[in-house]
Fold these 4 entries.
Entry 1:
Amino acid sequence: MRNGPSLRLRLLASFAAVIALALVIPSWYAQHVFNEEIVDDATSGAMRELRLVGMLTREHGGFDAPGELQRWVADLGDRLDVRITYVREDGQVLADSDVAQADVGFLDNHANRPEIIAAWQQDFGYSLRHSDTLDRHLIYAARQMRNVPGLPDGFLRLALPYTGVQDRLHRLERNFLLVMALVLVLSGAISWGLSHRLSRSLREMAAVAQSIGDGNYDGRIRNVPGAEFSALAKAINAMAASIGGQIRTITGQKSQLEAMLNSMREGVMVLDTAGRILRTNSALDGILEGAYQAVGRRPLEVMTAPELQDACDRVLAGQSQDGMENLQIEPRRGMVFDVGIVRLESDGELGALLVFHDISELKRLERVRRDFVANVSHELRTPLTTVKGYAETLLDNPGADGKRVRSFLEIIVRNADHMAKMVEDLLSLSRLEDGKLAMEPKPIDAAPALGGALKVCAKMAADKGVTLDNALPDEGVRVMADHDRLVQVFRNLLENAVRYSPQGSSVRVEHRTDGGMVRFSVLDAGPGVPRADRERVFERFYRVEKHRKKDNDGSSGLGLAICRHIVERHGGRIWVESPVADAVGSGFHFTLPAAAEDLPA
């Protein structure tokens, strides 16, 4: 925006112009009038003097002697301080008080002088002009002289010096200029003061308006430069109050909206009409790492889900039915979202709203349920098939020898025991998950619990040719636990280790105290657990597929799941590390709180 002269400068210029016009025109008019009056006054004086000289000339009588007229006008001119000239009708000068008698005859013919011409026409005449004879400005007045004894008819002329008149005019002009200068200075000073005050008030008004524009809506205009600006000041103050109230309302609504969005467990993403991310809530920031830095980017740049970007484009282009889309995406393994996209009908910058429902846990549970059903079906189908097959064989061969019958019945009983154990483990796991299985953690020695588990697993280890190594100290290890449940944890881990250990290897149990927790480790030399399966081995019936056996190995597939629930109920955790040594083996570790009396003070 182009800036012109300041208001203050324009006001000063306007005041100066008005004052100058107000002074110059009257001054010029007054000076003109005064000039005319002064000249008229001087001319009137010259005419009066001319009448007096004319009367004196007539009363003098005749001028018979030569040179008498010259002497008389010279003497009278000295006494009256005027120049007296007598001019004959033909223009010849007969006498002149300011010229020597010898030079009178050499004077120019005065018939063409303005005052002579005017007197010829009107009896009286005057003029203001420069005298070549005397080389100065004079006021000339002339009148006709007829029938004067001793004088030819002609014109009597008086010349008064114009210097006094000019001095008066110059003094008057100087006085006018001085007065006008004083008035201009005083008016300029007053105008400067008024304009300065007005400019300062306007600057204060502009500063308040600027502060309002900068967001300080509490500023108000207090100093109003004049009644003319009162309406403007009131309007600005009212505007500031209105804007401040609206900003407070908008800020409150924004805070409420942010609180609502941030309190939601679902992730929320808002897109503009161009498909760029305007904002996200804290839940989405927690779901998607770096989502808070995604403002200004497209959804595809935040998560690798082309189907989500396509759905957003359809919604923004108005190609979706009812302006809505719903889809499931899996931006990375194990993370599944149910996304609802709604088009926002507004004239502003809002384009679409995306709500992310994290259904990863639901999907995981659904997968676990499917795996559970499949595993239960698999685990029960094998023993049931075996029982059914051997029972049908016995029915079809009633005359079979006793030794064969006994062998079949032992197989049936073994599979029935396996199914009974599986059902018992399922009931135990269910009670653990529901919190109905009673536990009484108290300070105990973990060594007897491990000893009980080793005794139960001794036959299984001997049959497999695996050595069980107890590395716990003789003085024992004091922990806060339920004895029977701790025996169950040791037993399940030892059975799992023996089951997958190669013949001739050993299974070692050791411990380590770390702060207020005691970590127990069951180490084997088996094939190990792949990284992808280390979290899932504690699920029900989950086995690493490459080690799943078609025959009955005595495992219900629930031991590790039971161990996890028991350990977590005691306030510890359980995990697996693999390999342990020489790139083979697995280490199952779990922690329990150390007994309070064994903790350092």
Entry 2:
Amino acid sequence: MGVLGLVRVLFTYIRRYRGLSTLLVLALLLDVGFDTALRLSFKFLLDDVIAPHDRRLLALTLGALGVGAIVASCAMVGRDYIYARLSANVLNDIRLDMFSHLQRLGIGFYTEARAGDVIARFSTDLAAIEGAISYGLGGGAMAIMGIVFSLVPLFLLEWRLALVALVGLPLALIAARLLTGRATAASYEVKEGQARLVSIVEENVGAQPVVKAFGLEGGAIARFREEQARLFGSMVRFGLLSGLVERAPNVVVLLLNLVILAIGAFLVFEARMTVGTLVSFSVLFQSLSNWVQELTFTVPYLLQAAGGMQRLQELLDEAPAVQDVAGAGTFPRLERDLVFDRVAFSYDGGRRILDDVSFTIPKGTWAAFVGPSGSGKSTVLSLVLRFYDPTEGSVRIDGKDLRSGTQSSLREQIGVVLQDSLLFNTTIRENVRVGRRSATDAAVDAAAKAARIGDLAAALGKGYDTPVGEHGSRLSGGQRQRVAIARALVRDPALLVLDEATSALDAGTESAINATLAEVGKGRTVLSVTHRLASAATADTILVFDNGRLVEQGRHAELIEKRGAYAKLWEKQSGFVLSDAGDRASVEVSRLRSLPFLKDLDETLLTDLASLFVTERQPADRVLFEAGDPADRFYLIVRGAVEALRPGSVNAERIAMFSDGDHFGEIALLRDMPRLATVRTLTPCIFLTLLREHFHVLVSRAPELRASLERAIIEMAETFAAA
């Protein structure tokens, strides 16, 4: 997008305010018209008033100029006020268009877009456009008027000199035009570089726990310095090109002034032109030169804004992935069922996240979706919420395809509780009311009571009017989830969607929240995604996913009897005993026997081994150990999720993830060697750990244990090498 493209876009906004625009043009005409008349008056004053000593005409002329000055001054003040209002309106419209468009874009856009890049469009890019509107557009319009108003009188005064000016001025504009395209491209590069830099800062600020934990400060600074060096080069290039765009016409105009002065002086010397005409022509041409310089002065602002406007236009041109079809109807409240009919889905048109999935959830059913990470269960909820549309097949409510109705009417009857429910920096009451803006205080209180946050609000002093802080920082994880539950309930949803709603909570809080969800879910259709099977065991139906396919469906007891995928998941997560407070855990002998390297031990040894495990609780985002640290213990995950990160990775690349029932670190039981990877908690975790020194006592009693463990270590090393 060049300068002309920028002007075209801005004028689409200016046209919305025709009244203000008309008044602005009239004010500009009065201002420029008086300036031109004042310069033309030099010829009349010198040749027709001063030379003949006509006092009466002198008084009339000066009086007329005085009145004109007053009118022009009033016009200038009015122009400034009108332009300020018009500029503010245009900027407000651009901001609103951008923000409104962001609300229409689908979840897919936000999963791919850099937050810093989006923010930069509202900051640096919009600031450049504001500069163009404030200094470039108005100044440019006035300069163009001034050039037109100056050229015509020049021909009336002395057509020969005017021809010289007319030939010379295009050279000034051509000089600028030759550089404008390159300067515009350089401006876009600068805006892109600024956006990348903002993204780096935004990402770094949000990732400080990881940066500190992994000692990434040096790498972060190096990355920032590298990006800043690229931006520096772009800024220097743009500064030079924009300066040349402004400077080249001024040099041409300066030389043209000298040529016109020389020719004019010769004509006066030869008595072929009066002194008054020369003076008037000179000051009028000087005015023309000033207007040209004013026009070139505005060009850098316009060039900067052109790059910014191009980035804004790219955002506005981003098409929502999910849109209501023409004539889309409204969805009535769910009455019969939710149906997936041979649904397939792919994010990128390649690998299918869901493949040929069909099921029916009758009204009033609590349905739990379980399966390994990446199996597609959360994608099912995204399709129900219509964050995405199926690639194949259909999702229907009461027989009506979700694509045939409006998104708003669909979501009005859905309440959502997510794993990390974001709260806004306002009061508890207003955070609950976010669920339904028209909710009365009584409705808010009822939802809060159902979510059991009444005692919490009372303890905070200001009750429901207590501020929760940024992202709910003044509340605990369980308290935030209760507010999120109330926010969902205030909608009186027919369909309650729970996406890992308790997985980030400690065991005690999780149990309390699950009890609340079970109570508030009565009489509603509930879709719950969870990796913790204990939370799904009481569901009316359990849908088991694996690699994007629905592999099993039924009640807990039925699925256990099948001895299929669900039974294996249940076996992995079972065999642990957790205290009511969630502060102590133990492992059953049968669970230890399921570990490959322990399966051949006798009952007595396994019982002794179970007694050696120690409970460890760790918060989220805690580094358990780093690659290279001494390995001294083996971990069983009772609750929570962790990730293994590749050693030496600047961006902390994940190579594996473990959750409830998984184990890691068995190599530490046998060999005194460094850890092969860094492991960090993703959620609050409860571990059972076994120290190597305690394990060695058992090894001396069971030599076969060493051989089993050696085989397990070899298998783990091969898996790690493949990753």
Entry 3:
Amino acid sequence: MPKVKSKGQIKQQSQEPVEVKLSIKEQLAQKREKAKARKKFIQYTSAVIAGSALLGAAIAFALEPIMGVAAALGITCLAMCFKYPRPALYAFIIYVPFGGTVTYALGGNSLLQLAKDAFFIPASIGVFLFCTKYKQRLILPQATRVPFIILMTWMTAVLIFVNGSQQLSADGEQPILLGILGFKAVMGYFFLITCIYYLIRNKSDLYSLLRLQCILVLVCCSLGFIQYMMLKNGTCPPTQGTGDELFKASLESRCFVGGSLLYSPQFGVKRLPGTFVAPWQWGWFLISSAFFSFGTAFNDSNFLWRIVGIGSLASVFVMSFLSGQRIALALVPVVVILLLFLTGQLKFSNLKRFLPIAIGLGLVLVFLAARNPEIVTGSIENLQGRWQASPPHKMILHQLEWASNNQKGIFGRGVGRATNAARIFGKTQLVETYHSKVLYEIGHVGLLLLLGLFTVITITTFKNYRSVKDPNLRGYGASMWVFIAFISYFPYYYPLDVDPVNVYYWLAVGIVAKLPDIDRQERFEKSTEDTLNLKLTKKELKLLKQMENAAKF
């Protein structure tokens, strides 16, 4: 971000415009700085690679070659991400939708599902050190500080008193480690808000991040479409077995990308995982992507990128039908309609932008439906059958009642006791709705504290995006806010517990938290008025100073 000019500089410039040119001495100084930075990068990278290779060779000699290679790569990744947190955060965001494909392409070890944290954890440590050095705010938005600390205190108490007491009488289990993973599942990516806040330095960074999301959606949906065609054409065999095996997703049926897959065309049943570990994660990726794609389709400042946004939104609709994901098929159209109303796109003033998008998207969907009527009717009938067999509202009420009746004291059953990813450290209970899962683990008080934090986040992000004057930024903020409010209180299944929603939720909060600062920054930089008309308050001057420090990240 360019350094904000003082009032005197603005006044002088308005009276006598001058073209600023760097002297030869200043140009040479810039070249020396760049050369010095390159030299430091090469030295650091060489040292990291050499050290990782030596340690990896030792591990390979003592244990197994593959363990040595994994250790060398892991240490290199951790060291580079710690030193260069900005590229690490981008790598983290890119890796999230491909994590399932990478995991099973490399053998399916459950620890590989945590590989994305090799990007996030060292990068977040780098952000923490940056905030400490430049005295920047660490917990964002600022209004979440108190409810977050209270919730963390409660969960820590549960970890100590419940998981700790279980550890004393554990038989082959590790309740403390189970609790740590459960802790991570609930609040592990909260600090991503701060990381994204400082990752986005200006409007250009914001657009780059949101455009990257659209590209990832297009790539993942394209890979998912190839997966579907390979199954349909027989390149990949359908699900094998007898009885119930023909109706359950399995790794034996894995095809091209992703993990567990179900494809039994003789019974009209398919559950494709796309690039993710399991089919239902792919469904929630499609639902989440509808929000990001919608934002770009309607609010990007560049016409060509709005076309890309329309393409990514169309691909989400197509894969919602082809993948056999009932929840995506039900929610993606609802999400788009909800966004049209809540973001103000149906206003008369926006019709010139809305109608081309609606017509283009409608033609694509009508064409695909006409070419594949059996897929559309089969998907809708499947959704209706599932709804009738297990009505969602009854399932939600049953889960809440069950979790409430299975309490042991006010602290719940222990952090992680309903976290499926933590089952390697002890016995866990499958709870299929998120709020019931939290209730089971940390009790009624813990659930209320979590809902309190979500409520503060929802209210704060609403105020943030409503304060933005730029129409494009405001539109993006509205899309992200609807996503935040939707996920915060959505009672069906547990999307906040696993990829990708457990990342995208905090990513959206970080984006909206930054929007007011970007909006102010844009208005300050465009202003060429004199000191009397500029009227910068002490609060605004303090904000400008914070923005200058944030730009150093």
Entry 4:
Amino acid sequence: MKRFLMLLLAVLLALGTTLSALAAAEPSPNAGLVNTDPNSIKVANELVEFSVLARGKPPTNERGTYWWVDFVEKEMNIKLNIEFIDSGVFREKLTILAQTDSLPDLIMASATIWSADVMTWGMEDQLFLAIDKYREYAPRYFAEIEKQPELVAATTTPDGHTYGFSNIRVVNEGQSMGIFTITNTEWLDRLGMEMPTTLDEFYNMLVAFRDEDANGDGDPTNEIPWQGANSGGYPERIFVNWAFGINGYRWDAVDSYTYEGYFSPYHPRYKESIAFMKKCWDEGLFQSTFFSGTGEENFAYGQANTDYTYYGFSVDLDRTQMTGNKDLWSSYSAQIPVIADDSVVRSTWKGLPIDLFTWTINASTKYPEVAVAFLDSFYDPYLSILYTYGPEFGSEYDYYGTGWEYDPETQSMTYPNNTYANKGDYNYVREQNTIMDGATFGLEGSTAAKYYFKDWQYGVGWSEEEARWQKTLAENNFPYEMPQYLDTVFYTDEEKELFDTYRAPLQNYMMAQEALFISGERDWSEFDDYMKELDDMGGQEFNMLLKNKLASHLEMLGIKSPAQLEAEGKAE
């Protein structure tokens, strides 16, 4: 607690300086409500109530309340009147509220409000508060986000404002943000092969897995070289896209050399990518159920056959889900991205270390300064830990005995009064302490712990196998990770209307036709007809929208592509 108060004092001193520097700003009648006492955890000088729409479920514990909600009222002078909405219908509910001018004061909507929504409801309709106008009440948030300039770009709309608070994480040294694929290196070793780095080597590996006794059971016919599921889109295709310089997911694409934006089918090497997948299918390199059933059914099939499979990868599933058996983990390593030829920049998709707009504020709230100061408080490491994990066990804030104990040797939280078999079970945290329902806010949990706990280090407590796996993940993805810039592009109302009109039908048609071409249900000679069909559906218009928006976005950020840098180097 002493540590927290010292941090709070430092922030408040900085806040005083900032307030002086911004004295020319318009005075607010509510500014005096914000508490500036360095010895107090309170946000407001008197009780302030906010209506809240939160992604999650109502409390089901014996108290009928979450610890965090009570903590906020008792200690911070903020009373939250929360309506809980399931994540599956949250956006629909929010849309109705926005259309009927009925938005609550605060909206907790992690992974349910997208950049396009913020553009429409924030910048265009002015329904969300531009928190940068109240920057003096959010010193922690802006200090944290400005440590990573790409996060500033991701959260700033073309009008120069920021319409919400975002969850932030710090990428640790040796930590990969890339989407990984998985290779059975035990099979490679048995066949005397190296991990492939080119598409040809990748193909040769699959053929060897098909034809030779890769699993060592004496039967060279029972291996499945490539296991996965086409259901849901690109979880398998994305790896081959990268090989041709198509860095993207589902409908979107960024060329890894020129940084041009595309609707995927209009990338100049798209057809080659589909052709490679078709060749692998025709030659029996996939599991037979690749195009049938749901993704869950296909992965269940894989788990049932892990004694003799596979080469597999997925953007969504980890090794536990892919293999269904922890004992098999040591057989797999993260795959190095492969390239079709030397004209391609080796790359893999990189996730931004941010969850965009996890909380937004109604522009019409009665107490904007208090709302901003309240949400900013959870970028303090200590308060972020409390929001994420609940109170420290036995502390003055542990009202109900639901708190955690921290083990520095394993960097883990356990709950002495947890009734679950696993004392660190996160279901207990959600049931008793926090409204987050799996969605984080403020500083991401491990980032807050890194800042707050003495001697916290990335990877402490890992098993030998986990350390080995993480090492392959970092070494084989970095430095090939490329941010997916299309994710942070904002659209005007007119552009968003065009985007919404074309994206879903084009993506759905594209995915269906790809499956037909790869599986042979549609003749390869009709590929040009397929492209004409996309044209007739508005594919060219959608492609130009993505191309133009990304070009202006990267120009605004001052980001240059490898092609531009190479040209400048030759010019010199």
